[in-house]
Amino acid sequence: MPSGDAFDRLGATRRRLALGTAVAAVATTGSLWFSLGLGLTPCTLCWYQRILMYPLVVVLGVAALDRRPDVYRTALPLALPGLGIAAYHSVLQATTTQCTLGGPCAAVQWRAPVFGLSIPNLSLVAFTLVTVLLAATWVSER
């Protein structure tokens, strides 16, 4: 049986992983809603972000259920490139109207009614939250 301090740390880790799972699940559901519900066509950069976000739901979910704090070794290699691509995509939308990646990467197809965030901005928020939660898990386990 773990000591009190180790037990508290394990509980905090599990909460962070569960929250990361929820963020990744909402982002995944949102991306499916944009394409299937609203009929928006994902651009190349959107596909890359999806490829990196979708597995995080499973990886973080299993880690949260199985209490695996070392999941950052698997999840950070998905979250960090996703963060970079989402940041690049957001900058691209803010600074240009053309994209050379074969798609409407710079076109703003939808904006959130409340904060005016575009789809890549929402992806950036999700990847940032997941990355921060994973970094906190990594730091707490060291």
TrEMBL record:
Keywords (A to Z) from UniProt: Chaperone, Disulfide bond, Electron transport, Membrane, Oxidoreductase, Redox-active center, Transmembrane, Transmembrane helix, Transport
Alphabetical list of InterPro entries matching this protein: DiS_bond_form_DsbB/BdbC, Disulphide_bond_form_BdbC, DsbB-like_sf
Pfam families: DsbB
Record-annotated membrane-spanning stretches: 17-35, 47-65, 119-139
Molecular function GO terms recorded: oxidoreductase activity
The keyword Transport is annotated on this UniProt entry: yes
Top-level division of the source organism's lineage: Archaea
Localization per Swiss-Prot or TrEMBL: Membrane
Annotated Gene Ontology cellular component terms: membrane
Membrane topology: Multi-pass membrane protein
PANTHER family: DISULFIDE FORMATION PROTEIN-RELATED, SPBETA PROPHAGE-DERIVED DISULFIDE BOND FORMATION PROTEIN B
Similarity comment: Belongs to the DsbB family. BdbC subfamily.
This protein's name: Disulfide bond formation protein B
